[in-house]
Amino acid sequence: MDDYLKQTPYSDPGDLDHGDLGPGGLPRDPGELARVVRDLIIHRGEGQLFGYTIPEQRLHEDAESRYVREILRILRERGDGPLTRRRAPEERFVGTCRDFSLLHCSLLRATGTPARPRCGFAGYFEKGFHGDHWVTEYRLPDGSWRLADAQTHHEYDLPFDPMDVPRDQFLVAGDAWRMCRAEGADPDSFGLGGSDRLKGLWFVRGNVVRDLAALNGVELLPWDGWGPEFLGRAPLTDADLAAADAVAAARGEDDWRRLYRDPRLTVPARLTSYTPYLGDREVTLAEG
Q1: Segment 132-166, tens digit of pLDDT
Q2: Which of 38, 132, 222, 227 is most buried as measured by Cβ atoms within 10 A of its Cβ?
Q3: What is the pLDDT of residue 18?
Q4: What's the CA gap between 193 and 103, in Å, rounded?
Q5: What are phi and psi for residue 209, nearest 5 degrees?
Q6: Are strands 129-139 and 190-191 parallel, antiparallel or unpaired?
Q7: Using alpha carbons only, what angle is made at residue 150 by residues 145 and 153, rounded to the nearest 5 degrees?
Q8: 183-223: per-residue pLDDT in tens?
Q9: What range defines the domain where residue 279 resides?
Q10: What are phi and psi of 286, to 5 degrees?
């Protein structure tokens, strides 16, 4: 479990100096760190909640910043002061749920709490639909793990504490896959909310692969892939199905490490980022 206390090339914040931390430093409480994250990032689909029109260039470019160091660089350019200072909307990084999760994990790791991003599906944004989403999973002092949604705030009016998300409300991708493959769930009830095209078993499989990668320290962007099947442009093969079945059946870190050595599931050094605004582009990942 100490592996999840170590920063990855994606979560590493670099050298946090006095200007970043402020006189009191960062809080250690996971809930307080989630508040810090919410005060630094604005979801690119939520400008209207803050009465703010997000500049188009930021919609296009910010969320392509896959490393926490890059997120912090952008934040420093947009406003002075420590990370604990609440930023005005125009000073914030414009990101996605993955960025909330990754930065939350970065700060948790930096303050001594093992944490890992989890990719899957939330059932609390749209009734009857499981929306593509990322949350944080962090370790409690007793060794158990808890799900936390650092993105959500009072506007969501959730029926649960976002720092203790029930596991039937957020399904890690392997659980969603098992529901579709073995329990009769409709694959078309899983995908990107508001899209008629980005849903189905191929979408669930993509999140299965991304979640396994995150569990092995490779915290991808939500639209990263390395083959046409990642966008439903090619049918899933029997081998694809079998590999995802194996991930869904995994029950711990030894299984996750073993499965990640499977070439069908290992993230290559060079992949395709199927960016929503900028189009498909080839990306070489940082070495870890």
Answers
A1: 999 999 999 999 999 999 999 877 889 999 999 99
A2: 132
A3: 63
A4: 23
A5: -70, -40
A6: parallel
A7: 130
A8: 999 999 999 987 788 999 999 999 999 999 999 999 999 99
A9: 2-284
A10: -65, 145
Structure tokens that stand for 205 in this block: 């499989």
pLDDT of 96 > 90? The answer is yes
Tokens for 102, please give them.
């990754």
Residue 20 has pLDDT above 70, yes or no: yes
Q: How many CA atoms lie within 13 A of 242 on its CB side?
A: 5
- What pLDDT does 279 receive? 87
d(CA 165, CA 47): 24
* Overall number of domains in the chain: 1
**DSSP assignment string, the chain:** -GGGGS--TTT------HHHH-TT----SHHHHHHHHHTTEEETT-GGGGT----HHHHHHGGG--SHHHHHHHHHHH--S-TTSPPPGGGSEEE-HHHHHHHHHHHHHHTT--EEEEEEEEEEEETTEEEEEEEEEEE-TTS-EEEE-SS--GGG--SS-TTS--TTTEEEHHHHHHHHHHS---GGGEE-TT-SSSBSHHHHHHHHHHHHHHHTT----TTEESSGGGGTSSPPPHHHHHHHHHHHH--SHHHHHHHHTSTTTSPPSEEEEEETTTEEEEEEPPP-
